[in-house]
Records
---
Amino acid sequence: MKIMAGNSNLPLARDIAAYLELPLTDASVRRFADEEVFVEIHENVRGEDVFVVQSTSYPCNDNLMELLICIDALRRASAKRITAVTPYFGYARQDRKPGPRTPISAKLVANMITVAGADRVLAVDLHAGQIQGFFDIPTDNLFAAPVMAADIHARLGGQSLMVVSPDVGGVVRARALAKRLDNAPLAIVDKRRERAGESEVMNIIGDVKGRACIMIDDIIDSGGTLCNAAEALMAAGAESVSAYISHGVLSGKAVERVNASALKELVITDSILATDATRASKTIRILPIAELIGEAIRRIADESSVSSLFD
Ligand code: R5P
């Protein structure tokens, strides 16, 4: 087995390799003067089971091209099996046509990864589970929930917890976390714009008074969803609001927004390499998931069960 890395999240790739007690494959993934991606593998990979670790996060198009070109290089170097490991799978939110004459970019990206030569995909908390069906190759979708639940037990155990979905679409994810937290009660933030031009109204479904609320979502991007929901929960009498989010996209002024929000803490995983602003934030904490991904890789290589990781 070999672990190769693109440039999007080298610290995570190194941590995964360290968990597996392997060195990273000796390769250079670099740019020509005009920014074209060039990949050169400096060791023999013929007949190897190779896992390419690359989050397709910002700059998503460059990182996606790096992933595709790494896979192409491995295929042409006769690797036996190539697994695209995308701790963060970008473009996932474009998984349906929101209107006429719009693309389904998540499906296009799935096609590109397959055509490049990947034999399998390993992702973490895909925006929608159905994206697995966009691939006609085996796709494992890992959940960060067990890592989050262990952290919540350690930090907030003993408090009167309430798991909150920041929107109606996230209820299944929230319920799964609540189950891991000894069946904690569930609340939902229901955002509604009654009439065009009027501002959105946040209705809280569930009684959050006096509760330590834990919001869960797959992505924090601009921070709008979470920060507004946190404010609405505090206004409804919550004792505190923390958030556990799989992928800290945190674009634009998101970190500033989080720092100034009603959130007591935002916990993200290291699926996306943190910026300096994220690392400097006193409100944001990063949960490592290298062990989770490393263990799934070990099991895929050994052909043992991956799903039992989540029992
Ligand atoms: C949406 O469906 C996702 O699950 C997140 O809720 C969304 O991407 C968060 O975006 P933002 O932080 O920009 O509100």
---
Amino acid sequence: MAKLKVAVLISARGSNMQSLVHACSAPGFPAEIVCVLSNNLEAAGLKFAAENAIPTRVIDHRDFENREAFDAKLTEFLASIDVDLICLAGFMRLLTPEFVNRWQDKILNIHPSLLPAFKGLHVHERAIESGARFTGCTVHFVRPEMDEGPIITQAVVPIHQTDTPEALAARILEQEHLIYPLALKLVAENRVKIHGAVVLIEAADEQHHALLNPKVEGF
Ligand code: GRF
């Protein structure tokens, strides 16, 4: 079967993009990264992509008059390279409804909380301040409203009493690097079915159950 052609959109570090690149390099993985695109020429992830022989492209949002014009350029480019799926990985631009609807059910995002809790920015500080015992991370389909959309994979991460936002972010990031490749694999295998707000995963095996509901250390 042909591999799913994926573009990964980044704005900075790109560690989630790296986890997707590593996953795609495994023999038999059902997706390939055909482009890493950034709105920021300085994004550190671009160097990694280039070193790994992945085509890169910069489309700087500051070169456009408004959001609509920037998004139209993104669509033009992504369509020209014939992508099947767009993975947002730390892409710090809000996307217009026109863009999201043009790529309906073809955009994934990763967010460092257990959605629908803690949408938006500064999620780690807010999670700690809330007094919640657990937070985590989520991969979901993108809808026009920010951090909304059917959830594909999640991982739970405990909040320690002594946690700083940085320490918590680092533990969540480790889980992000597991659940994004897993979500991509499930989508590429065509095992992810959207039923309204809910995703059903066909033939979820033991390993997937384990990753979707990880055991908490020490319990
Ligand atoms: C991650 O925490 C991701 O969940 C959020 O932005 C951060 C990006 O990190 N959307 P990286 O660029 O993938 O390292």
